[in-house]
Design goal:
302 residues, Fumarylacetoacetate hydrolase, domain 2, single chain, 2 domains, alpha+beta, 12-stranded mixed sheet, 5-stranded mixed sheet
Length: 302
């Protein structure tokens, strides 16, 4: 099932959830199902069963022209991300040592984990800000995991039972802020407002036969910059869930961005600028696409 969060263009303040079928959106709004994705996910298989009944009725249909697609989950409880999870990305990072904080070593023994703050969430086709505080804006196309149930101390063998579905993430990064230190301040480099677009759907795990064999591509202004496969991740989805859940409880709707392959702008210093367009596509998950704009002056609040 492809689950979607959206608003109607003639009612943009009301968030709805639904499913995509044959290029139409089935709206769950008039049903007894929750109107937000996290509470829907908490229903587990029962929620999917009721949703399937709604889909089969084929009522409350909208075309894509009638809606605005929003981030599947507006405010995830946690956004956890993985750095340096593809060998060739590690290799390219090692080649640009002048960008790294003095005396900081790249460790490869364990997954490199950091947080993106949930205020960084953006819609899958929303504008992304190049910060007024930095020109070093970079892209990172990634496979995203959506957690389906409260879980702790999950074994590798049981990790698949904790995955509700998959999505596409662009882990936009402000590199000079990331490399402040030592040590590196990944959270400060990765958590800027608008810098976590994801979607366009949550594709439920039953539709993804093997999450570790998906082609991932990233384009900037239609130029291919990344072309890899999730089979090349160093730490696969199940290992990441086992590792993370050893330390803390994962909750329904938590988002895990699993890392990016080689091909980021870090190696070329061809930083993103206003007017650029970045597209990330992954097999069976669709694509997200974001225009880069200069951060507006009205973002200051106090």
């Amino acid at each position: 099932m492809k689950l979607i969060t959206f608003t109607l263009k003639d009612a943009p303040s009301i968030y709805r959830i639904g499913a995509v079928k044959n290029d139409k959106i089935i709206d769950f709004y008039s049903s007894n199902l929750p109107n937000d994705m996290i509470n829907f996910i908490k229903l587990g298989d029962e929620g999917l069963k009721q949703a399937s009944q709604m889909i089969n009725l084929n009522n409350d249909l909208y075309s894509f022209d009638e809606i605005n697609i929003k981030a599947p989950i507006s405010v995830p409880n946690k956004i956890l991300a993985v750095g340096l999870n593809y060998k060739k990305h590690i290799d390219e990072a090692k080649e640009v040592t002048e960008h790294h904080s003095e005396n900081v070593e790249l460790q490869e023994q364990f997954p490199t984990i950091f947080n993106k703050q949930n205020s960084s969430v953006n819609d899958p086709y929303g504008d992304v800000h190049r910060p007024n505080a930095s020109d070093w804006l970079d892209y990172e196309g990634e496979l995203g995991i959506i957690i389906g149930k409260e879980c702790r101390h999950v074994t590798y063998e049981n990790a698949n039972k904790c995955i509700y579905g998959f999505t596409i993430v662009n882990d936009f990064s402000v590199r000079d802020w990331q490399f402040r230190g030592p040590p590196h301040t990944l959270t400060m480099g990765k958590s800027w407002d608008t810098h976590c677009p994801f979607g366009p759907y949550i594709v439920t795990s039953d539709e993804i036969e093997d999450p570790h064999n998906l082609v991932l591509k990233t384009y900037v202004n239609d130029e291919e910059r990344q072309n890899s496969n999730t089979s090349l991740m160093i730490y696969d989805c199940f290992t990441l869930i086992e590792y993370l859940s050893t330390a803390f409880t994962l909750m329904p709707g938590d988002l895990i961005a699993t890392g990016t392959p080689e091909g980021v702008a870090l190696t070329t210093k061809d930083w993103l600028k206003p007017g650029d367009n970045v597209k990330v596509e992954i097999d069976k998950l669709g694509f997200i696409q974001n225009n880069i704009i200069q951060e507006p002056n009205n973002t200051s609040k106090c």
